[in-house]
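BUG-369 | component: ligand-complex export | severity: low

The export step for 2-succinylbenzoate jobs runs without errors, but we want the raw record kept on the ticket for reference. Input record follows.
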Amino acid sequence: MKIDRIELRHVKLVLVSPFVTSMGTEYDEEHIIVRVDAGGVTGWGESVAEGTPFYSYETVPTAWHILQDFLIPSILGKDIANVDEAIASYAKVRGHMMAKAGLEAALWDAFAKTEGISLSQMLGGTRKKIDVGVSIGIQDSVAGLLKKIDGYLAEGYKRIKIKIAPGFDLQFVEAVRKEFPAILFQVDANSAYTLDDIGIFKKMDQYNLLLIEQPLGYEDIFDHSKLQRELKTPICLDESIHSLDDTRAAIELDSCRIINIKPGRVGGFTESKLIHDYCATMNIPVWCGGMLESGIGRAGNVALASLPNFTLPGDISASKRYYTEDIVDPEFIVNPDGTMDVPVKPGIGVEVNMKMLEKVTVRSESYKA
Ligand code: OSB
Ligand code: MG
């Protein structure tokens, strides 16, 4: 497949409601959409580097720089036989996983379209429908949170995750568990605590949470093992896991018993698959995290979550839970039974809505062989 042309688009999508976490408040989501034209097909990917370096050190400008100056020149004009060959050509670039994942995703889509199979099929997916959950930002009041959860459960969502931060933790967790004793319920701290807060997590341990996501440092593996030792509730790592090597360290140290896989955070679907396969052999469940993606990134997450060891519902919600209008057609919807259909058409399996994409693009650049 000859890589004829690559296009980058800095997009900005306005969220239907602000998303509040321990990292701050997001009103809109800035990402990079990557388009690859190769061998007569068009592949699409999304780099989830954000406008701010609060979740990850990567931002839209850093990812753009790495894509434009290093990743794109390494494959543009070349005849590439498969995704692994592309990865090998930019393997000497260290870090910048979100930049890499955006390009890799577009290549996966292009190769799957060339072969006429769905991305799910190409990745080794085994499910036609996936179980989905919702990630709810920090709310002003307990009553407001309960009402939101009620609404999402009515829409079918199979699992509720709430964001927590110091001062916005135990009282919310206790109230949710009291109101909804039987739901799959988990929390995400986005690294807002330290080992000094162990008392908070020991109290949280009594609420039958499915997992506690990334309570401690965003690069930490060691302190999490000290915390996990004191808890019944599984810790799940998100921010700290950038590779299969990180995953091995975390599991061998018993720093977590569940892994959140976000393709953007680990450099793409290839590394995601390696982590998925390793976790399967270690009896460690995985689930697919989210970065408030547009439908392009979401399609990739849905395909990935169709692999067999994605046994817990992902942070993969309906398009309308994030954005008034998505940039893909059809938009992603949640079935009344809390599942989402895995697209079956070639590649990502949804069409890019060019009119909407144009509307949300703030800058674009194309690179020709
Ligand atoms: O920590 O999982 C996270 C969104 C942006 C950055 C980090 C996270 C999140 C979410 C939202 O929790 C998940 C989603 O896309 O629904
Ligand atoms: Mg998280």
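Assignee comment: Attached the raw record above. The pocket of magnesium ion (ligand 2) is lined by residues 188, 190, 213-214, 238, 260, 289 (CB under 6 Å).
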